[in-house]
Design a protein that fits this description.
- This protein is an alpha+beta fold.
- 41% of the residues lie in helices and 22% in strands.
- Helix 2 (70-94) crosses helix 4 (121-141).
């Protein structure tokens, strides 16, 4: 199992994606099947498609981290965020980031944050594309390195809080 994360952009159109990638026969496959068969109120996991009827390879489940709130948020989630994830994951297979066996024998779970105030479809698409590609790439490279973690630990911060040190 490979695990990755990526945060791209700023403001309400930013993208934050966590991924689990691995063989269908392992824990990622079990989690993938469980996620798709267990929707909850406001969280409707679905298969990522490049176009209707053309799912991404490896098969990818989109899990919305923010509960769906209103037509605009639903559109930003199901439209540009999903399309960005589709392009990012698919390019990882086509460019060799994912191994050839990932095409049919692996799956991806993408947990995706779309802000309730997201409003720019092109920016949402671009940020989710970059974040999906970045998260899968980081997962397969097992990034970040311990050196990068050590450097970040010396100056912990995130878009919502920076400690006063």
């Amino acid at each position: 199992m490979f695990i990755g994360e990526s945060f791209i952009g700023s403001g309400p159109n930013a993208a934050h994606i966590n991924v689990m990638v691995g063989p269908k026969s392992g824990p990622v496959g079990n989690a993938w099947a469980g996620a798709l068969s267990s929707p909850t109120k406001g969280h409707l996991p679905y298969m990522v498609v490049l176009q209707p009827g053309v799912p991404v390879k490896p098969m990818t489940a989109f899990i919305n981290k923010a509960d769906l709130r209103g037509e605009q948020h639903e559109t930003m989630t199901w439209g540009p965020a999903q399309a960005g994830v589709a392009k990012g994951v698919q390019e990882c297979l086509l460019e060799g980031v994912l191994p050839p066996e990932a095409e049919n024998d692996w799956c991806v779970i993408a947990a995706v944050w779309v802000n309730w105030s997201a409003h720019d479809a092109d920016e949402v698409f671009a940020n989710n594309y970059a974040a999906a590609k970045g998260a899968v790439t980081a997962a397969l490279k097992q990034e970040p390195s311990l050196e990068a973690v050590k450097a970040a630990a010396a100056a912990v911060s995130n878009p919502f809080y920076t400690p006063k040190n």
